[in-house]
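Workshop exercise sheet. Pairs work together: one partner reads the sequence aloud, the other fills in the structure field after running the prediction. Swap roles for the next sheet.
Pair: D.N. / O.F.
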Amino acid sequence: MRTYAELFAVREFRNLFLANCAGIAAHTTSALALGALTYASTGSALLTALSMFGAPLAGVLGSLTLLSAADSVPPRRAMTLAALLAAAGAALQAVPGLPLWARFAIIFVTAYVGSVAAGAKWALLTDIVPVNAFVLARATMNTSVGVMQIAGFGLAGILLVWLSPYQVFLLALALRAVSAAVGWFGLADHPARAAERVTVARTLRVNRTLWADPGRRSLLLNLWVPGGLVVGCEALFVPYAAHRAGFLLAAAALGMLAGDVVVGRFLSPAHRERWIHPLRVLLPLPYLLLLLSPPLPLAMAVALVASVGYASSLPMQERLIAHSPPEARGQVLGLHHNGMLAGQAACAALAGALADLVTPARAVALLAAVSLTATVVLTPGLRRTAPGRGRAGDPSGRPAAAEVAHSPAWHTR
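Structure field:
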């Protein structure tokens, strides 16, 4: 499976792609609406960043409590329940006069449930497509994120000129309903991966075992930290460009889209491996230019070029799957997803706090410098999972090599 035509010939993948598109569009439109509402009412860069990017901090709690549900609950059921809860949250956000603390509570609860469903979704992707097609499928799903972020931020930016944020929330509600319907009616009822009950003890036990492996731990840190700091840069687009921030966000999404298309579709597995490190450096480096406070068109170019570097996560995710046992795949992918989003949220909060002390341009440049430093410091750990270095054992202590050794994607790298 090497082409988009072959990939979209799979009915379940088409529907998963569409459900994800609707969900991302809903998230981006509501995030920009909430950010605009928060900044207008408080004038705080910190609270604005938290309103737009802080919700995934709830994913930390989800990862420490009920993440085992990603393997113990049928994925279609988990995804649909999360989409319906998000729809209810959008409906509540559309109520004028709702206190800010209540709006934050809504996004926290929604993100908590979504953090569990995310692991189930990405593990389901490995069931829908062959193992050697995962990178293409994951890159295509990332493409849906890029396209829908461009559309969502762009549309929300335009709509906020004529409509109130409360009316934009109603659009997000409709998109959430579409996501829930497509997921429920368009996906097969795949069984749960694990027969064990969903308990906090099981979640913590598997987390400890997954984290104990040095190679897997290095992959997770490389997937979480540098990119999270760059998202902190993006969290300052509203203070940096005010009502024109949607253009910067759309440019960043376009860059991410371009990187995913090139790396996921056109690079061979061997070339993907060779481009990991250049792309990791590309991600933070251009943002150093914002220290000069360039005009909007140049700032958009910076965001576009830098975001191509997000594609480095594709081959690192490929390594993560190869070094993880199938029966815990939902949990390990959930750890990756939730840790990534939580890191982004924490860095967004840090960015907002910095921007309340110095100018947004200086805060962006400082975060970019820290991200570049983290990239260099974390690079040696990636050698543990380089092709040919072996694989990690599973959470029960059995070697995982026999379970993944026949992955065509691994042998062609």
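Discussion prompt: The chain has a mean pLDDT of 82. What would you look at next?
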